[in-house]
Amino acid sequence: MKRIGVIGGMSWYSTAEYYRVINERVQERLGGHHSADLLVHSLDFDEIRQCQIDGDWERAGKIMAASAAGLVGAGAELVVLATNLMHKAAGAIEDAVPAPFLHIADAVGHEATRLGARRIGLLGTRPVLEDGFYAERLARQGVDVVVPGAPARARLEEIIFGELTVGEVRPESQATLRATADSLAANGADAVALACTELELALTEAEVPLIATARTHARAAADLALTGP
């Protein structure tokens, strides 16, 4: 079993899910009392959130790279970033450490392919939906994307940062998320990826299959730690 290093805290609510799911998957695979060989560096999200607001992706990348280097220095043989949005700075991590880095969109693309979904809807923050880095990574696997219109993207931003990342799940917001996912299905999505790790804490069903990105990513990390090169 390889030691997994998780860069977390963005937010800690979804990072807790990573810890749980990785361990569940290892126990599922190995049985008995087995659990994951796992390190977590939980960052202060307030500092990262300010980088997002300021558009300071260079600083964000340096923070991510330093975290990855610290995990590898502590023995991590595989690095996972427990957030969708901060994969905008994934290149900084890949450049900083020799250990394999499992990109969340690669895990999502693999799951979409397993589901037979060649076109998926994305729900997430503005950078994930608008900046291209996520869709471009999915395109490498032959997966096309469809995103909500501008008003819905703005509402998603409000729900994610005004509620979910501070631990709130409001029923009216859950209804909005369901309606937005269903509208993506109506626009041709074969599945919908919850491309913000907190979204799967609020949305569990829609008219098409939902890809819970945190769970998908965490399970893929456990599998790679057990069977990967």
From TrEMBL:
Pfam families with a match to the protein in the record: Asp_Glu_race
Q: Which UniProt keywords apply?
A: Isomerase
Stored SUPFAM superfamilies: Aspartate/glutamate racemase
UniProt protein name: Aspartate/glutamate racemase
By its UniProt entry, which InterPro entries does this protein fall under?
A: Asp/Glu/hydantoin_racemase (IPR015942), Asp/Glu_race (IPR001920), Asp_race (IPR004380)
Asked if the Swiss-Prot or TrEMBL record annotates the protein with the keyword DNA damage, the reply is no
Q: Which Gene3D superfamilies match?
A: 3.40.50.1860
